[in-house]
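INFO worker-7 received task bundle
INFO bundle size: 2
INFO processing item 0
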Amino acid sequence: MALRFSERARLSDEIIGTVRRSAILANPVLHPLRDHPSFHAQVQDEAGALRTIWRTRALRGWLVQLLRGLSRLRSPRPLIREALSQLTTIEAAPSVLFVSHRLPGRNGFSGEDTYFGTIPSAFDSAVLLIDHRPLLTQLLSRAEVAPGRITLPPGLGLRSEVAILMQLVLGTLRLWAMRCSERDAGRRQLLAEAVSRSGDSATGLRIAEFVKLVCEQAQPDAIVVTFEGHPWERLAFRAARRAAPGIVAVGYPHAGILPGVHALFRELDDELNPDGYLAPGEIAQREIERRLAGVPVEVLGSPRRLDAPGLKSNRESICLVLPDGFPSEIDRLVQIALNLARVRTEVEFRLRLHPASRGK
């Protein structure tokens, strides 16, 4: 029986509130982002979910994470030291750590940051880039650093990777035990899905460990993270707080806040919640203030501004197409726009693709 999104959100809230293990908190199944087709788990009954655990989804997830871990057997600490030591504009360590993303087809070491624009250059800051390039590209690339910028490597060294693997094994066994002892059919199904995605928890654990290593060396005053409700964001806040006591954790929901958002507004333990939010605009600010009363929210703005030349049009009607970063959605909406453009020639159709889709 398929779980409706509202039921999935409610059950995941109940489960996540009873666990403390990082490997379970990092499980993406327990963090439903929003009621959107691209985020829905594949619809399957409990037996179907269990059949895939050791065959396809889980096996693939574990193999990918093992490959990442084995690709870098040396500790990344020297890389972090090199990136921080190259900061020539300031005397002390960076006061703000930004966590952003390196996307396919983008050079994360020059020009404006895709998500924060020129904001990091206005502070004594360092930027940690989560690598979203194809896995083979990551594995074959040499470790890259620049003044104040460093890309998260595929693996964090033998010692850290062994620790992450042990956390994954223990977390998977705990989820399996919870599933076996559960009587509610909905919770059993959700826990079965979580077991089948347990290998993917390594992503959140690895990012959190890297944030900890950076914060131990830099001791920043604040950490600013792109914030959508992913489990790694919460774990990054906790890792930063434990490595740099007194640090201020800030979430930046860089995209528009659409209806059906859940994990972004979920309130967990204090260590896992942001101290405040930066909003891309006033509409998002009002929505955050409405959903999280009493939490500080300031407008930061967005680098995705419309100041490029040639944006003005002589046509009265303009249709702006804004697909999310998922190939299935991009293909469908772009095809619809192309078909409509052939029929409605009086309308100008503009495609504004998600940054993650560029370079594919």
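INFO item 0 finished
INFO processing item 1
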Amino acid sequence: MKQRKRRIWFCSLAAVILVGVSAVGVLHASALTTEKLSGMEETSRISRVEKLSTQQLIGLLNGDKSVRANDLSMANEGLYTVAAQLLERKDSISNTELLGQITDPSNQIQTRSILMDLYAIKNENTPKAELKELLVSQGGQLPAELKVKAITDAVFTEEDIPLLKSYVEEEDEIVAFHGLKKLSTVNLSEAAAVSDGILSTYPVQPSQKISAAQKVKSKFYVNNPNATGKKEFIALCVQIAEENPQDTILRDSSTFALSALRDYSAVEAIVNSPVLDRISKVAAVNENFMTLWDVLKESPSEQDIAFVITCMEIHPIKDLADDLERALETVKDRAVQSRGHAVVEKMRGPEGIEANDKWVS
């Protein structure tokens, strides 16, 4: 989970803050709830929270029903207003105060999570050494949700490899997932070696840990194209997907890992799989437009041309039409010729799709 993505909810709260607030007397926090705030006019609601102390605002977060249920999908306008006010004050709240509230077990977990996001936003452009210190000193007491956020935001170095490996061994598979991903940003070779251990025993590993290992190994082969074992890795990803057709995490992670390789054999494995669905195959063809184009430019065999035709029948990309048509001039099999000319017409027609610029490189 990208840091920017997981902050979308919090950052959007800034839109709640408006100018032109009317003057209203201070209401004691003990008489106020986020539910009551939600029933007020917006200007009155904002005026009320502006007059509360930071501690009172945190108290309102703790008392909110959606926070207590750890389900912000039920969040009300009062909660948004309180969180937005905290966001407004981020530069006047010290890191020490924020970290103290984050580690305070008397606060609701979701309150602490919101404050962790606030800390990350406040310190977005500065190293977050305090988070690593927090993990070392309080890691055993931190709920998994907070540990994941700290791992995601903290800055680690080669010296921290043992610490990051310890997260991969944790029982909570989400913590393990993010620990391994973070390790790959510090030392990809070390992360790949840890991933090998996970994948070699995948039948007894949790899905999230397998998913992280697949992502790391795919990244490793992209960065080390001549490394041995890629053929076996492709076969293993296919095996994992086909042995676990009902596990959406493993099915998707296997597909993503294979597709990210930008490897012709990996695309073949996805498209020819009897288990992977059409959506997965469309995504793989879309992402590997350049891989297929390279095949067409390099004197492809009839088998290769037939496979590209299959891919275009799944996802007709306009940009490949001319190259596929030229390649068809070398094909002797009339059935392949017929399919090829039909799909070229489809690629050039209204069903044809422009290549995604994201993957043209």
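INFO item 1 finished
INFO post-check item 1: The two ends are 25 Å apart (CA to CA).
INFO post-check item 1: DSSP finds 23 helices and no strands in the chain.
INFO worker-7 idle
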